[in-house]
Design goal:
Layout (H helix, E strand, L loop, with lengths): L7 E5 L7 H15 L3 E6 L3 E6 L2 H14 L14 H14 L8 H6 L5 E3 L6 H9 L12 H8 L1 H35 L3 H8 L4 E2 L10 E2 L4 H10 L2 H31 L7 H12 L12 H37 L4 H5 L1 H35 L4 H29 L6 E2 L2 E2 L1 E2 L3 E2 L8 H37 L2 H8 L9 H11 L7 H17 L8 H23 L14 H23 L2 H11 L1 H4 L11 H5 E5 L12 E2 L2 E2 L2 E5 L11 H31 L5 H27 L1
Antiparallel strand pairs: 1-3, 1-4, 2-3, 5-6, 7-8, 9-10, 11-14, 12-13
Protein name: Anoctamin
GO molecular function, one term: protein dimerization activity
Organism: Gymnorhina tibicen
């Protein structure tokens, strides 16, 4: 049975005899034969070549590994090499075998000489363990079998699942905190003085939301939105934002500890990627010269310029979304459909959010191609460096793709649009949109909710539906051949390998960035969960629900829908850790800005302590925010409207001479009042205080929780001591002899 185990399968079309492609294929296979590889050919609708490496290749690898790790010096001469290690070594040799035409497998696949190259799924024990423990729905709340995943898929995939499991586990605490924040807002919003005042303001006439055919409206119309806004915009949100800043730090610090324990258990803390790569290169070709590290300031400058150009395009797309919302607002308000005209602002924001989601889908593909091009331009030396370079670029591009529009809504919407009688206009025609009547944070809440729900429903369905449909279609292509056999045509006895190889070939192709896609999806989700979480406290709960489904689905996809990934060795999650730490710092800045600028938290506090009735009289039984809404609305005389603004002065039987709008401006000349500057100073002071306190707490948390547990440090220390002790004992023994 051992003789029928094959390390890799190469697939080729059946080329014409004597054709250029056939000659190139034979040259490659001859090179493998010279290295001692056993090759088995099976013909079906395609040509399948099973490849098995000679044992001496693995003995050489073991020997070099023992030299690298002195602790294994006394181990037996030739141990059985783990299946994942075999596949990794064979994959490296296949990818780096050069034909007499100086072509590698990658070049031959580009020229369609070979169609595919993949390791085979193991149908035996390990796959059964993974299926039973990991890829079944009943296993959602069970501990992941990281040990078995490592043996089957290698350390890199095992570390991904370990990290994802740890992240999901800690999301429980963030989700509970977010839920408590919303519940606290829900239980107090009915008694909120601000919400009550909005709901009772049926004689407060607000200025029209557009220039043509728009009437005045009553502030109490936004009563429901005001109550919803108070669910997320209250004192508890500040505490929650601070909690999430600390949570992000604690999560990463605890992950570092978990990773240190896992890596030490796997005996990888001394493993060096450069040494591993050099060892494999020498096993493949003893005359190999190591590729030198390169750096070019000119190349770096070109990469920087091109990256900045793409970032400018992404910011430009965010501007286009702003223009869309301004035009949509004007169109919806003038619509004959009462539902559209009545909820024009909400409809503009929601359709804008859907459009934003579509741009995310399109630009993700563009970003990937640009990042790969820039990566090739940079010429990184190793695969790991290439991945790190690609990761940084794609994350920056994806960050701007996902967050440009959110940044505008959070910090610019409603602050650069002017005021009645002097609006800022696009092309001198369309008014820039204003904040939602119930507050600027409502727009951000709607945008976050729509994008997160769409990302975690449509994107996830597509992530699993496309591979499933693709797999089913690939299987159907094989049926005509089977039908001929059923009709009774003579056929020679089928090779036992044939069905196994065909089944693996019918699975979806995997590439070097298959695991990268999973990481990127989770890191973008982590960004949504932390950066603007003050505006959407339910984000961690949505992320948790998504991940509980994601873990078994990822395993299901890897096991049953995709060809086997080439196992890779790793001792950490790579540059993703630095990316997550950067997101943690951005989360502090983002949430500080949301509370200081987007939220009404600061204006309410300033009113309470400086302008409310509580400051002038001793009203012990009065809520100090009484009168806040009237205080926060400025007065505008309708005679000062711009000439082309058409507004009917009569509204609900009232002859309107003045209307109100959200701002702190003088009723005489519409300049900013002293209160505006008080609030501005308070916002700035809060922002500085919040960010310094949050960053200090993060630093203290990072210092308080050691990256490496004492147990792991002591294990490594004992190992070093034993090695040195053994070396010295051997030296003394040799000296005595």
């Amino acid at each position: 049975q051992n003789e029928e185990k094959w390390d890799f399968v190469l697939v080729s079309d059946i080329h014409e005899a004597g054709s250029k492609k056939e000659m190139k294929r034979n040259k490659f296979l001859d090179e493998l034969s010279k290295k001692g590889f056993t090759i088995k050919k099976i013909e079906d609708t395609k040509l399948f070549y099973g490849v098995r490496a000679p044992q001496h290749i693995f003995w050489k690898y073991q020997c070099l590994q023992r030299k690298a790790d002195s602790r294994q010096q006394n181990s037996s001469t030739h141990e059985d090499v783990a299946e994942a290690t075999r596949i990794r070594i064979v994959n490296f040799i296949l990818r780096n075998t050069v034909t007499s035409d100086l072509e590698k497998l990658h070049d031959l696949m580009k020229k369609k000489v070979f169609e595919a190259a993949f390791p085979l799924h193991n149908e035996e024990d390990i796959r059964e363990i993974l299926k039973d423990k990991c890829a079944r729905w009943r296993a959602i709340f069970k501990k992941q079998p990281i040990k078995e995943i490592r043996r089957y898929f290698g350390e890199k995939v095992a570390l991904y699942f370990a990290w994802l499991g740890w992240y999901t586990y800690l999301l429980v605490f963030a989700a509970l905190a977010g839920l408590v924040t919303v519940v606290a807002g829900t239980t107090v919003f009915s008694s909120s003085q601000v919400s009550k005042e909005i709901c009772d303001a049926n004689t407060t006439f607000m200025c029209p939301l557009c220039d043509q055919n728009c009437s005045f409206w009553v502030l109490s119309d936004t009563c429901t939105y005001a109550k919803v806004t108070h669910m997320i915009d209250n004192e508890a949100t500040v505490a929650f934002a601070m909690f999430m800043a600390v949570w992000a730090t604690v999560f990463l610090e605890l992950w570092k500890r978990e990773k240190a324990m896992v890596v030490t258990k796997w005996n990888l803390h001394r493993w060096d990627e450069d040494e591993e790569e050099l060892a494999l290169q020498l096993i493949n070709n003893l005359q190999h010269e190591p590729r030198q590290y390169q750096h070019s300031y000119l190349r770096s400058a070109i990469i920087l310029i091109l990256a900045l150009l793409l970032i400018m395009v992404l910011i430009g797309i965010a501007h286009m979304l702003v223009i869309y919302r301004a035009v949509a607002m004007a169109v919806f308000t003038q619509s004959d459909v009462s539902l559209l005209s009545k909820h024009a602002n909400t409809m503009a924001v929601m359709t804008g959010a859907v459009l934003h989601y579509i741009t995310i889908i399109i630009m993700t593909k563009v970003n990937r191609h640009v990042a790969l091009f820039l990566c090739d331009l940079e010429k990184p030396r190793t695969l790991s460096q290439q991945e790190n370079s690609f990761t940084v670029k794609i994350f920056i591009f994806q960050f701007f793709t996902n967050f440009s529009s959110l940044i505008y809504i959070a910090f610019f919407l409603g602050r650069i649009n002017g005021h009645p009688g002097h609006y800022v206009r696009i092309a001198g025609h369309w008014r820039l949109e204003e904040c939602h009547p119930s507050g600027c944070i409502t727009d951000l809440f709607i945008q976050m909710a729509v994008i997160m729900l769409l990302k975690q429903t449509i994107s996830n369905i597509m992530e699993y539906l496309i591979p499933f449909v693709s797999h089913q279609l690939r299987k159907k292509r094989k049926r005509p051949k089977e039908r001929r056999v059923m009709l009774g045509e003579e056929e020679e006895a089928e090779d036992p390998c044939k069905r196994h190889w065909l089944n693996n070939y019918e699975l979806n192709e995997v590439n070097i960035f298959s695991l990268f896609n999973e990481y990127l999806e989770m890191v973008i989700q982590y960004s949504f969960t932390t950066i603007f979480v003050a505006a959407f406290p339910l984000a961690p709960l949505l992320a948790l629900l998504n991940n509980v489904i994601e873990i078994p689905m990822d395993t299901f996809k890897m096991m049953r829908l995709q060809r086997r990934m080439v196992p890779r060795k790793a001792k950490d999650i790579g540059i993703w850790l630095e990316v997550l730490e950067a997101i943690g710092i951005l989360a502090v800045i983002g949430n500080g800005l949301v509370i200081a600028i987007t939220s009404d938290f600061i204006p309410v506090q300033v009113y309470k302590y400086i302008y409310s009735p509580c400051t002038s009289e001793n009203h012990t039984g009065m809520d100090c925010s009484t009168g806040y809404i009237n205080n926060s609305l400025s007065v505008f005389r309708i005679q000062d409207f711009e000439p082309h603004t058409k507004v009917l002065p009569e509204f609900q039987g009232h002859q309107i001479k003045e209307c109100r709008y959200r701002d702190y401006r003088s009723a005489d000349d519409y300049t900013y009042t002293v209160q505006f500057w008080h609030i501005f100073a308070a916002r700035l002071a809060f922002l500085i205080l919040f960010e310094h306190v949050a960053l200090c707490v993060k630093l203290i948390a990072a210092w308080y929780i050691p990256d490496v547990p004492q147990r792991v440090k002591n294990t490594i220390l004992c190992d070093k001591y034993k090695n040195l002790h053994n070396e010295l004992s051997m030296m003394e023994y040799v000296t005595e002899v």
